[in-house]
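Re: Re: ligand-bound prediction request (bumping)

Still looking for help on this. To restate: I need the protein modeled with pyridoxal-5'-phosphate bound, output as structure tokens. Inputs repeated here so nobody has to scroll up.
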Amino acid sequence: MIYLDYNATTPTDSRVVEAMLPYFHDISANPSSIHTAGHKAREALEGSRTALAELLKSRNDEIYFTSGGTEADNTAIKGTSFAQDKRKKIITSAIEHHAVLTTCEYMKKFGFRVVKVPVDHYGVVDLDFLEQEVDDNTLIVSIMHANNEVGTIEPLEKIGEIVHRHGVIFHTDAVQTVGKIPIDVRTSGIDMLSLSAHKFCGPKGIGALYVRKGVRFDPLSHGGHHEGGKRAGTENVPGIVGLGKACEIALDEMSAEEKRIRKLRDRLWQGISERIPELKLNGHPEKRLANTLNVSVKYVEGESMLLQLDARGIFASSGSACTSGSLEASHVLLAMGLPHDMAHGSLRFSCGRYNTERDIDKVIEVFPGIVEKLRVMSPLYRP
Ligand code: PLP
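Reply:
Sorry for the wait, this slipped through. Here it is.
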């Protein structure tokens, strides 16, 4: 099996699993309990908060654990909206993950106007458009750090500058970047940031929201006084410990790992682009996640390529993993100006920690043949 779908989710690192194991049984007390066992669980939880704060360069009391990226995005947008009643405009981008887009759409029910900033053909947000739209009625601007489908990295610092001139909150969905590239919330102008452990070899079902001190938001769930009263419910201690361990590993290994993975990704692009004519690279040529390769293959459907690769034990993705159950063309690629046929003919390879050169060479060996076979069957293809 060759797994090249790391942007959908990653295998949990065995060091993370090992760190989590004691917290399922031996140290399984409720961290809110005042007995010694409870203290131990609390200590582990706070240790993970410290590890994450170190990775983001934030304070510990600016971290709120959530069930993942989706909940963090929901909390940022709904939480800030419900905490005030003056500003009624939300700005986001056309290429956000559905966790942000659908949440913004939902806020229309409560009288909010939603504006989507367009992107250029590389997937970079239009800063002039943003500048024109941010005004005194705008509550929050939610623009992702890097796109999950094409990997394009957005200019966070410039966005932060524009947003703050109007006293607006800047939220970024950094689910695809935390643990992969360095982030410093002190210098990047970010007020709120969403992340998810399962995108950087941590466990699924755990994430966090960073909230700059002083930014007001209402909780999504009400109950006990967990997470400073901002997220009720007994904490997922094993998951939080796993997230903390994934952060520690990222702090130590992120830079070397990024270089190694970039080489694999570039080897793959070189290998397939030399062998397959009429192949288009989607996303920014340089300002892009080191692990992500999204291509459009003319005359061929992404789903057909996926199935053929799958039959050979190679797992990739067409469009976002979260939407690949449906056959709608990717909203990201359409927003970048790709015609429908090229959007439908897209494939995303995303590499990660456990990939090797042999994996890449195997894909280079089999993928061109798959494309050729499918093209021969296409009524539009003239070799
Ligand atoms: N935001 C982005 C950019 C993502 O890629 C994903 C997952 O695919 C999410 C949010 C949702 O995160 P989670 O799966 O932790 O809810």
